[in-house]
Amino acid sequence: MKKSLSININRVLLLFSVCILCAGQGCKKALDVGPSKVTLNDLNVYSTDGGAQSVVAGLYMRMSNSGAYYNGSGSLSLLLGLASDELVNPNLNNQSNSAAYLNNYTANTSPAFWTEMYREIFICNLAIKGMTESKLLTSTVKQQLIAELKFIRAFNYFYAVNLYGDVPMPLTDDYELNNTLSRTPASEVYRQIVNDLLDAQGSLPDNKYVNGSGIVGTERVRPNKQVATAMLARVYLYLGDWKNAEAQASALIGNTNYLLEPNLNQVFLKGSREVIWQLQPVSSTYLNTADGYFLIINNNSFATNGQLPLSNLLTQSFQTGDNRAINWTGKYQTTTTPSTAYNFAFKYKISSLSASGAATEYPTILRLAEQYLIRAEARANQENLNGAAEDVSTVRRRAGLEGITASDKLTMFSVIERERKLELFSEWGHRWFDLKRTGRLNAVMTAVSAVKGSSWAEYKSLFPVPVNDILANPNITQTKGY
Amino acid sequence: MQKKTAFATWNSYVQNKAKRYPKLLLLMKISIINCTIMLFTAQLFAASPSKGQEINSSNVSFGLKKENLREALKKLGERTGFIFVYPSEKVDQQSGQIILQKRIRTVAATLDSMLIGSGLGYKQQGERTVVLFAVPDSKISDVQQIVISGYVVDENKNPLSGVVIRAKGSQRTPSISNITGGFQITLQQGEESLEFTHIGFKTKTVLVKNLKSPTVIVMQDAVGTLDEVQVTAYGSTTKRFNTGDQTTITAKEIEKYPSGNVLVALQGSVPGLLITQNTGTPGSTFNVNIRGLNSVNAGSEPFYVIDGVPYSGGSFTSFRGNSLSPNASQAYDALSFINPQDIESINVLKDADATAIYGSRAANGVILITTKKGKTGKPKFDLNLFTGVRQMNRSLDLLDTKQYLEMRREAKRNDNNATVLSTDYDLNGTWDTTRYTNFPNLFLGGTAHSSNAQASVSGGSSEVQYLVSANYRNTSNLQKFSGGSDQNSSLHFNLNTGNANSRFSMAFTGGFTYNKNDMPPTDLLQYIGILAPNSPALFKDDGTLNFENNTFNNPLTTTKLLANTSIYNMTSSLVLGYKILPELTFQTTLGYNKQSVNEVLGNPTSSITPAQLAAGAKASSRFTEDNKMYWSIEPLVTYARSLGKGNLSATIGWSLQKQHSDAQQLQTTGYSSDLLLGSVTSGTTISGAGLGVAINDYKYTAAFGRVNYNLDDRYILNLSGRYDGSSRFGENRRFHFFPAAGAAWIFSSEDFFKNHIPFVSFGKLRISYGITGNDQISNYSYYTNYSLVSGAAYQGIPGVSPNNLPNPDLSWETVAKSNIGIELKFFKDRIGLESNYFINNTSDVILSSALASTTGFTGVSENQPGKIQNKGFDVMLNAQNIKNEDFTWSTTFLFTRQRNKLKDYPNLSPARQIILGQAVNVQQVFRYAGVNQQTGFYEFYDVNGKTTSNPNQVTDRTGFVNTTPNYFGSVSNTFTYKGFSLSFMFRYVKQVGTSVRGVLSGSVFPGFPGYNIPPVMLDRWQKPGDVATYQKFSTNINALIIQSQLARSDAGFGDASFIRLQNASLGYQFPLKIANSLKLKNLRIYANGENLATISGYGILDPENQSLSRVGPLRTLVFGIQASL
Fold first, then answer.
1. What is the band of B298 on the pLDDT scale with cuts at 50, 70, 90?
2. Which residue ranges make up each domain of chain A?
3. N or C: which end of chain A has fewer CB within 10 A?
4. A413–chain B Cβ distance below 8 A for any pair
């Protein structure tokens, strides 16, 4: 009995150890499934040029699709147009438009700019890291894509800092770190913006628009050196670095690839020679531009559709004979009784959702007219009033108005402010930012609020951080006043 | 060579009894070695045999063509040289003619065959002489070796094959009863009793001395009894010795249900198991939950194991959207493809002791399905046919045309006398205002037919057993306008080899199912509330759909959808065993399952309205191709021996599993012809839809073990553990150990108990604690995955965007389960009571932790210190109320009460729909304030307690509703009277659900053109000052918005409790005499019903699925016949 038991145990032990050996060897390997084979993931996306290009293409598609601040109902063009004095809100039930129009955003109802900007910044950080570390990408592709990503990061931070003041500045994809960031002073953010833009300017293709695969095309839908230059001109202007602002703007104004389209109706078309940077429309909802849909009024139910008329404050500012009033604004007479007339922005001409054929109008982000006005302001600040007057006159003449002559500096500033208002209305919140950076926002908004029937307070020049961020990140403070 | 013959006359008392049980019974032969009693004169056959022959070892090739016994014995004597001595009177009484196929047998076996039914026994006396005698005529104790033959039958006198018969305490190869229930076993001297065991029956022990002739052993049903074999995780035990909380449902209960999904049979049958059927459509999905929701975000499906091989439950990928499952495009419950009639038993494992050996997949409980296996005996053919009808279980009543038009006019009046619009076709005379169609009746009042045919053959020797069964099921569409049917064919097979004596054993079991469904994915229920009763005729005179000059949106366009769904399901399991030593067995289970879906759903031109066609709409089609493959290898070593006063058994095993699935869902639009809809490439645009393209791999590996010690059949300790890892977890936390301990004390075996409380025939207390895990999260979720950005490719490059933040620490949710249970039997097991109290605590809850948007996302999936608690108790009471020879009545009562609570949740964001201290599935709702007496609109309380008709979706949801059932259970009664059996089961659920009002408020808008309402909604506000239940009729969009808020308020929920006659079954077993006269072994006719009646205050819809878009579970009634030959 004893013997047989010991044999048993020996045999059992042998068997067990064989099995344990097998299992032990297999354990780690046995669970290795790798990432999914049909989706890209952080393990494989930057291992091919195609994957890297798709990530950057995905970013442009996000921008082009997104209702949050590039294009459409949540865009800066619409919401800041409402917040300032450009647009009116005809539908009080539209909570998001009402909050913008009445300047009564709260932490609970803050616009989606913040989350969208930081999502894009995250993608830029993630992709810059992934591409930098990848040894498998073609060097030219890698260089161009990283430069584009830096440009997009700078572009986002530019708006972040102008909308929210000091902002957290994540530059990595480490979420544990990024979840605890406090606000970085705006000056530091600007330094980062300038550095990124200079990097981009140095690495992006010069005087040609190259797609992600390195092929030169005619559509101006990706950043190149000139796009970075245009953005730099604007950033220097906002920073008060007049010399650099003038230099960057001059580089574009002197570039024969760009000119002010003589026909105002062609400025926002695909292929416009005035355009420095557009996006390719990709949305299946808005075949052309979403802004076109929300700004053009052509039926009685426009208010329910979220469409926004121009304010009288704007339309009444046009001089007689200003072709911009003729070509860039429209009037809709409702067919109800009594009939009401509404003015609307008519820069984009196509409103229809399901226009057939290829898109002819592209969402436009940077165009040459702004560069003239940037240079005018930079020159005026450098006491070159004649040069400033010349630049303003160029823009005015294209609109069918007479040129202006130099007067005193203060007058010149107000001329430039007015010219920017009339040239750049309903585009990218220029009006709001202009008032804010020139210190005139309070004065103007106090007056405008009286018209709107709302109340203005100084803190409203900056927007509140979403409540979710305040709860999740103990180090971030709410924007003052909210 | 023939010598003298002696004949004896033998007066035997056996004769009378033998007459009473003519052929059916039985003979008992006793071979007596030292027979001293010779009460007869014998005629001896002299022979010249070779020396030392034994009838048990000498072979003879012998056959008979219709001979009487005397002649047969004579011939056998001539052939073998044995001398047969027999009582001649007795031998001459045998009127039967013996036919015996010529074959080589031992002499004894030849005699056995000849003497069946004769009442004669035999014994060898000396070298040559064999004495025949009537039995029993001697004292058993006198003999050294006894051969006993007899028959085993069940309580209904049906022969039982496959019964294992052994001498109690012996280690020899047991005998197994054959197809007619017949058996023969040889006993050695000193063996006093026989033990009969059979799955599903009480083990029976009989003292040999009490055996009577004829020997008929009646085995009693083991349902609810203690010693039936109970399949457990990686092994088996008995109810008596199980330390875990486990409920077994056997084929006997399952076969009462005509449903194609065994889950219906489990509804209400298992304490702690809550099953909800989502629709009455064939293939419907179910929500299956054991002991509450253990998770917020991860799955809560139980883990299914079929014949030892994991099986993915849940739904198949399909575009048929008839399910409530998280992804509405998923349909078809996976268990629909396991033929219920092929299931031998289902074991539901609940506590940690029973489940923890499945480690990180055990958190939500385990359902073990054991399919039928081959049984020893001659080939047995079974046929089971049934056919019947299926109907809606309640009819819907809506306003007639007159009432409807009055409602429409009232709405116009309410809206400041709004003008009748040119589009108000129902009102402005475009449509005949006197026309009336009862759409609920027309669409859903029909009857579906369901037929099922099952045929099986099984049999085998003690070495090899086999079973093959085939099944065909056809269910037609309740909705006659849609047509089509669901057809299911399946094949099940099993091949076993090896017996108790052989070292090697093998069991190969498998099944294949092919299901074809060509019913359009249309549920017309969703249209009945949105059709004016004076809608135009559905069809034109030529039989085509009528659109009444584009004024009528004919709902029957959806019935024109082409559908063809084919599902292939294969399961297989191979168990190889090798007995290394008597106490040590090695076993490997190899499994391979494959599930494939191939689906085409087409929108042909006929399903498109003329208006859409004019606008350029083209035919389109959607395609699903999904293949899931699953294999597993599980080697296992079992060691069992006695140790001290008890028995020790230990199991150690390994598991290696892989699941691979690849799915494609595509949509093609722009077909030029309906004939091409089956072709993916024949349209103009092909795009991904639904899942798109998804390939998933899932791997799993584990080592597990269990030690069980049973001391004196009184104290049992069971320790188990599993160390496992799953590829779904992040690299840093893949492996974990899941231990469990269970202990049981059979206190009724204690002497003091036996002596003092004798009416308690069994009492067991068990307690268990253990840790289990939940890995039901999606694959690859710890990586950052990039998905395609929707929209046109940017400069020809499709864009991708990261979906989530990576988390290499993502891991299982942990569920610690405690259970205490008591099992009692009273009055010789006549009354049984089992009750369990459990607490399951979930920790490491996977939640999206709130992150600041500066991280790029608003959260990341993380195991957080959140805690969910499920606790409750259940009771199962069964009683044999009456039990006598002809009549039995038994009752089973089940009750389950469960509570679910979110105990802890760090940083609970107010935007989340979960609340601390409430159930995890609690819904946050507006608090309803009534109908404003002035405005006639619904009002709700806002966050400040003020009433408003336009509450804020985020801040004003201050009430909450818990839709977890309060309690549920069932009451079943079974009666048998002779061949009749009758059983019915009432299932009850006490719960709060979306009320009829809530369902209607979200989908039916009284006053708007086309919306028709049930008469209950006539209790509405009509003029200022009215106190009403429903708000005013209106055609104003604002009224619609306010009304739809009601569905999100506490008024949208209400009591949805019900008592349902879940099952009724009536059967009649024909007496064997009649069956045999039809050359059948068994004949039974029956009627089975499912969901026959519902008692509920719920109202016009079904309280189980609470829907106006999916028909509820159908009432089913079938008639069938079962025969064996």
1. confident
2. 224-457
3. N
4. no
